[in-house]
Amino acid sequence: MDNFWDIKAREIMQSFTEDKNYEKWKETVLNPWNKKTGYKDKTMENSSAMPVKELYTAGDLPRDASERIGYPGEYPFTRGIYPNMYRGRNWTMRMFSGFGTPDDTNKRLKYLIENGETGLSIAFDMPTLYGYDCDSSRAEGEVGKCGVNVSSLYDMERIFDGIDLSKVSTSMTINAPAAILTAMYFVLAEKKGIPLEKISGTVQADILKEYIAQKEWMYPPETHLRLIRDMLVYSTEHVPKWNYISVSGYHIREAGSSAVQELAFTLADGFYYIEMGINAGLKVDDFAPRTSFFFNSSINFFEEIAKFRAARRIWATVLKEKYHAKNPKSMALKFHTQTSGYTLTWQQPLNNIVRTTIEAMAAVLGGTQSLHTNSYDEAWALPTDDAVKVALRTQQIIAEETGITDVIDPLGGSYYLERLTCEMEIEAYKYFSEIEKMGGILEAVKSGYLQKEIADTSYKKQLKIERGDDIIVGVNKYVDRDEKPINTLKITDVAEKGQINSLENVKKNRDQSKVSRSLEELHKAMEDDRINLMPYIMECVRNYCTLEEISNVGREIFGEWKEPKIY
Amino acid sequence: MWGGRYSVSGKSQKYTEAPIKILLAKPAIDGHDRGIFVLAKAFRDAGMDVIYAGLLPTPEEVVDTAINEDVDVIALSLLNGAHMTAFRNVMEILKKRGVNDIAVVGGGIIPDEDKPALERMGITGNFGPGTPLNIIIDHIKARAREIRKLRENEY
Hints:
By secondary structure, chain A is of the alpha/beta class. Chain A has 24 helices and 11 strands. The interface between A and B is large, with 41 and 33 residues.
């Protein structure tokens, strides 16, 4: 029996026609030419192992191309989710930032705002991402190294010191302890006297992706999923402009997946969260419009653009046909994009500016809602002020100088792009079908299936590079013998010492009885799956319980998680 | 089976021909495991006996596993900037337990200026991104040969 996904894949496949003139052209024009010039044609493929033809023609469009492509701002949203796209308003320039202490990060955020950034995006350090305080033995040597350290509400207060939360939208890249950091942000708004209805932003909170790719978790999947459900329900009721999730393909791609795997696994995660909301008793149109996505933009230009367009069309189709959404906003997939960190090379780092530019153009031509451009020095360390400024300027040049934003979806209708978009869709539907046959995405994650798929793709890619089949300029071709070191940002251990001291002060000055009481109440609430934990976590945060103290409540009840063996 | 140092008894010739046993580990809190899986597969394809310590092991756990599994080489990798702390901790624990016949190699995002200090601790290689796999594999083979020679003299 065919499932929903098999049927959808077949629909697209059956819509393809044949172009007899193309075969004739090959036979009578191309092949003789190749023979005459001594050119030996070779088969080429993209990162998703899809064969790429030498030429695409009208025959590559599906028979019902005009419906599948549609118009901007309406179903199936292939050409973008807004009617006028960037003619009306540019995408949000949202640089992912955070390092050292909250004060260091506060300075960087203000620097970016002064330079024209339009949204904030916070990167947390490893201890924070794993729910440990800065003074934990697990955190030794890591405080502030990969992002900003947050151990209590006090740190959040310093990050946003002098920044008006009612005027900026903030994105927080946090997953395992997402509910705690979200609670901190909500409580911070409350303390600044800003009603929760007025704050806007996004929390990543995509735990399925963590098990699949980024591997930053605290508890078994079910516990984290329950916390995400509670955030979803709480924000639906109290924080209407808050995107409760950013379903993330970015890390899946960075972990080594192909474009198609990124597309398929991310959307499969997205469908799970939709079902979770429905199972929690919400109506799909009450929360689906606040589901947001986060994709990678890598270096294979057309493949990336096709991926973004396919993502929108699949989401629209599935929300309408499978989850019976009525509101077009539920069907419109909005997404943030980050250029690929993996494609940045340690060798000849200035080349990374070029890579990032091309990837940023793919994101814009793919219709992104917000964009982070990587800095050229990021294969070395977190970016310096100078490097981050060039990265931001890259976006501004694309937006203001190139004319790319003058026309809505300028590549729509390209034979190659439209065909590739359809092929991406088909391959994604095949993966959805496969995952469903395995018992759903959660089962696929627990069995290690998705992780293995990604690791296999990554290894194949590496072997191609080793053989020289895939060229990386400056790495396996056009190599420089004497490279000069570049300036990099250094995070000293001063950040760690400073954070530990400040945490000690927080602990000294808080009301200990309130701390213990709120933690106990959270403990009790956690044991009952029907209780929404957000108000309990917010109460802990208000009383300056630390990130680790709050995280440990779950660790005590649910234990930790060991990944399945995948190699 | 060959591969355990205590199973060697005057048959050092064969011992040196046994597959190199290597432990791959990220001794801190760092989920970026793309590279380590590529290495695991590459080392296995190069004929090594590969063990992966899994995510988030403490330096103690890394050393415990290395000793229990009787490996020739520990390959440490970090991309989170904590290598100067985490790698050093592994070396100190090895020293404290009197282990001097396991080679330790490193890799990840390691700035050039940190390399001399790591070398002084006894961690060699310290390969950055973009290093061809065969260079890493050759280095590991050379280190494993040294270690096995050392063990032959010991036992």
